Task: inverse folding
């Protein structure tokens, strides 16, 4: 992560203005507020603001007048019930806002989640920094042979080093040219909105991103998944830590009913019933394709 | 407004749990937090939570690291610029949550605003209170003759009293029957989800409603309008007061560029140019329909 | 269902204007177009327009230039894959529009699905017909004792008849008063937007409702569920027939991977693994609550 | 535009499957169906499907049973009324789907419109073509000095040629390296999802993009604007032609009430009233900033 002195000072100053509030407040999340969580080589994730807590979900579900006087265990049970039965609207009652620094190709995946608000740093208006993502050698992997959109074996050290040289070389060259295109004295004074088209997709951008708790969990469910690209998954993993700090009961229910849950199709259910009745079912007689059969067996092994 | 003692106590207790926070905090809105603002005969509006302030809009627009060190006048100028040019995304960075008690027919108009989250009190699950909206005599108006969806003259006192009797009588009778349908001992023990279908549309319901600042202003622009039905407009008017307390710079820009602004069509613009050139334009030669002509003249008079 | 002669004639005329088109066309759905499918005592559902077919989903998923030359079995396999892995965006590429006549209390549940477009008949602008929903005796049920938002036993015939009298009596009276409030000569000439507040929630309204295939299936998954209120479930059941006529491969995948699928929580999965390993697991030692245990056992029995 | 023979054949075949339909059909749009409209150097826009026409808007606004028997002039008047008063829901009842080939930096602006469905060609799954956007000399402009996010003077021919060389050189090199990274035999067999991060932002991508008529007009209003970047504006201009072919009455109303309309702020309105009263108002005494004053004068000149 590469913050300038000035940026660190701004963040530090911001994190010292304490106010009194009657709003629900979460000390564990206050402790994380504004602090950058490092992701990838130059990226970060910072919680900028939040609204609501576990209690706010319960309060909305009950449409109650006060904070509620129920016991903690009752609240947790209600949250589990809501999560289990996919009653999503009470979870929409909490909101969180992040400042994220991320490579453009990650931003392009991320933005596909439409139920969020975004303010991105504008390269039409401003000049980008010379920062681009370069994979660490251990994440430099060959195309998967079984999964058309996945990674397979890690590259041999020598190959990884050569790939790194290519990526770094191209990023440096295109960025250098970007600066030359922009430069009004030594270069061409080209409009920013045009010069930026020369940058590579691993260039870092940043944005403010805000969503509600329901949509945050939907994002997490999709992006923590092992099939998600590594470079977005690491952001999701940091956000999952934020989730546990912010709304611990909801996070526990999320682990139980969403992340750790398994869905079986109608045919899988009939296979399962046969297995539980003692039958030894084989794929050929299961009604499942080879791929679905394998997925089912993997789920049952855990 | 009819809050029970218990409800008042819950609200009072809720309003005394002070916490420390590093989040942006707005004292003028904190002072209103949880307190019911009375609307109509039994309705209310309460601010339950909020996220962000005027500064948060500026911060998001600039994608800045800290709170920003610019002057207040610069911030106000940026907010005015954003509002004027309909850059809506920075306003989406603030969020507010209300608890609202409102007649069902108002709820049906309100819910048409989809960019919001809602948790409504469930009449499948719970039993509604015997509360229904009855218009005050001065709002008891005849069908407008010029506007098919508006009100005209106020009814004469005698007629208004008779209408009130009819509305009250029907609401009392249907509610009494609702109770009889539900009653397991003296009545029929009918399922709640069925019994409620007997209630009239002026019965009060309540919900938690949460939206972002951009969509709140869109709601206000439509519902403060004199063409909005009186019974929803009074809620919008209370919300406008909340807007001014919460984000005074944004509220000022809203008054200047949205609420007080006038849009002229292409043809109106050509009429306007002729007028400014000294020509005396008449409707017949204006290219405008009679209705549009009248609207334009009304706007110019102010 | 109560259509006037004039309405029937309008529908019939509409259904005879044949055009040539290059767009994907589904004969089975064309055969249903404009025809009212009866629902409840006076309600209906009509398909007014549609866009796309099974092939359009495949085409979008492949971002292809033409209609695609793949075999039908390959297309079906891709659709199954997309459904199984919750790749929802290709399903958003199909769209359908309905004209629905439905009781207001059903409309209030329905509108909670925000990812749709709605144009409702306006009772501010027009006068409603004297039509209201009355449950058939076999759907007149007592409050459930196990499910706070459900129905239990059917009422005894005598009680059902009495309940019906109450509901009918109140609806007739409030509608009669509605007419009297509106009547400019014999009544009060009250504004329509006010008079309507006297109507009961079982009064019929109607709307045009349009959504995409992904959101249609989401609606169906929630509203076909046995826990949905009967009066909205019957609409969902008619829509499911439309789904099968329109996109048969997608509908088959929906039955397999959504409607017939079962999701087990993390704890349920560990119980399942123990059971498959031959252990006799009891609820007390399962880590599941009684309710979750029962739900799991019910799923395993099918 | 660079379509392969195979792609042209697929498009041609697609455009010959004529069906009969009872749905509203627009001959002028049928004539454009599937045909690529060229945009920029390698981009295009193709209408893939549509739903509804001008009549469908009127039908939804009236919630009518048939196609409606009103006169064309009445329909046009209603459409004008709906547009003028921002009654947007009837316009949501029409839908259109495009296949678009566009540079990635344009795609990044475009995707900010969230009220649409998108299926993009996946560079995780497939390999991109060697196609990138290079501005024509007449669009190669210097940074604007008055508008921080705009273009100023066109570059001198020699400078434009040099800039072109830089952009072309970098795009060719990074694409060559992309191929080398991917190549399993002569290169590194790097995973596609990683190799693509080396591409520049002017690389072409493509997607299926679907939205409703209301949101299409919102997109057009923002992207046809002279302040929009040239490279997205040219797509909007082609879409505007599609709009006129598809829904001519709506398109005419759009030109009159949206594109050709001008909005004056509260302060501008007071200035206007003074001017119409014969006063010679100067900026200093207007209450307007210099920039707003200039904007107002420009609007009045037309």
Result:
């Amino acid at each position: 992560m590469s913050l300038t002195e000035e940026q660190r000072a701004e963040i530090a100053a911001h994190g010292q203005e304490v106010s009194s509030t009657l709003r629900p407040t979460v000390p564990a999340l206050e402790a994380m507020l504004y602090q950058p969580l490092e992701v990838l080589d130059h990226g970060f994730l910072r919680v900028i603001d939040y609204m609501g807590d576990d209690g706010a979900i319960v309060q909305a579900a009950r449409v109650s007048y006060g904070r509620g006087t129920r016991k903690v265990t009752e609240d947790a049970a209600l949250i589990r019930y809501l999560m289990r039965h996919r009653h999503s609207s009470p979870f929409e009652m909490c909101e969180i806002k992040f400042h994220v620094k991320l490579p453009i190709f990650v931003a392009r995946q991320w933005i596909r989640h439409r139920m969020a608000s975004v303010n991105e740093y504008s390269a039409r208006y401003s000049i980008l920094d010379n920062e681009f993502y370069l994979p660490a050698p251990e994440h430099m992997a060959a195309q998967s042979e079984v999964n058309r959109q996945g990674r397979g074996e890690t590259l041999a050290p020598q190959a990884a080093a050569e790939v790194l040289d290519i990526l770094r070389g191209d990023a440096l060259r295109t960025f250098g040219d970007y600066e030359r295109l922009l430069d009004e004295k030594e270069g061409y004074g080209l409009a920013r909105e045009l010069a930026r088209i020369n940058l590579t997709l691993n260039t870092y951008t940043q944005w403010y991103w805000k969503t509600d708790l329901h949509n945050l969990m939907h994002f997490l469910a999709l992006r923590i998944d092992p099939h998600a690209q590594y470079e977005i998954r690491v952001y999701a993993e940091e956000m999952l830590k934020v989730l546990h700090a912010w709304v611990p009961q909801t996070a526990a229910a999320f682990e139980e009913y969403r992340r750790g849950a398994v869905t079986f199709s109608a045919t899988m259910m009939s296979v399962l019933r046969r297995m539980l009745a003692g039958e030894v079912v084989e794929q050929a007689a299961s009604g499942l394709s080879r791929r679905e059969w394998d997925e089912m067996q993997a789920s049952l092994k855990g």
